[in-house]
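Fold description:
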Amino acid sequence: MATVSGHTRFVRRKAVLTASFGVPLLLALWAFVLEPASLEVNRYELTLPRWPSEQDGLLVALLSDLHVGSPFNGVDKLEAIVARATASRPHIVLLAGDYVITGVRGGDPVPLETIASTLAKLQAPLGVFAVLGNHDHWYDGPRVRTAFESAGIRVLENESVRVEGGGFDFRLIGIGDLWEVKPDVGAILESLPEDLAAIAFTHNPDVFPLVTDRVALTLAGHTHGGQVDLPFFGAPVVPSRFGERYVRGHVVENGRHLFVTSGLGTSILAVRFRVPPEIALLRIGSAVSSLPPVDLASSRPRQGSWWKSSPARRRLRPKPARSSPG
């Protein structure tokens, strides 16, 4: 019978110890440093039955939850976000709230006026529009609005505007933050003229059940995609009363369409795992037939395909969730 030498046992123990300590260290490095510091431009193609075919191809850059001043999200990162979003050549840029930090561990606050002036460098032929998030209201909502509008960024809070140019003509609706503004969504939508398609954007996706099919697409952020997506378990913490129902991606409920971006910064803890910071670039059409389906649950484009195209993921059954401020 063969025996195991002392040297072999030593090598095996060393390998076990290395794996026991090395793998957790690598995972921690990835979750607390590498992924939060990363930046992706993720491209999605959305099929919207209520979108007019003559306006197919509208390209929307959706940026949310920048939390400028959170770890790995200083002015340099903000400038990189602006440069990459502009380089993507969207027709319109929508900013979905939470630009500042409040109570983020390890954060280094950046002057609000610096944030606004940097975001003002964003370029899109149909304009740059913003709504405010809960952190912006906790910081000083009127001051945030003033800073943005002084920098030339139109802020829409429970109001709509007609957007037209380059063959596009639609209504853009900015819905105020659900937690802090508590908007009367029904009244906002009732005031819309019936002759144009409509896109709504807001900070908190929990407003979506109140949005009627008068709106072709609702866009939101706030959840950060949960910041952590554990294999087989999903996101352990989502700041939503619906759990993972609206955590991220394209969702369809009763013919109504929602897209939630996983955002760019971090809140509470500077951790991201399998939910990298993203600029969401959305190409909108009334029909998609030329591209293969891609699972929108993935945050990375399919190899060899520039766009992500998929029937929307359905999260129709609310799940209980442990919530934290988004």
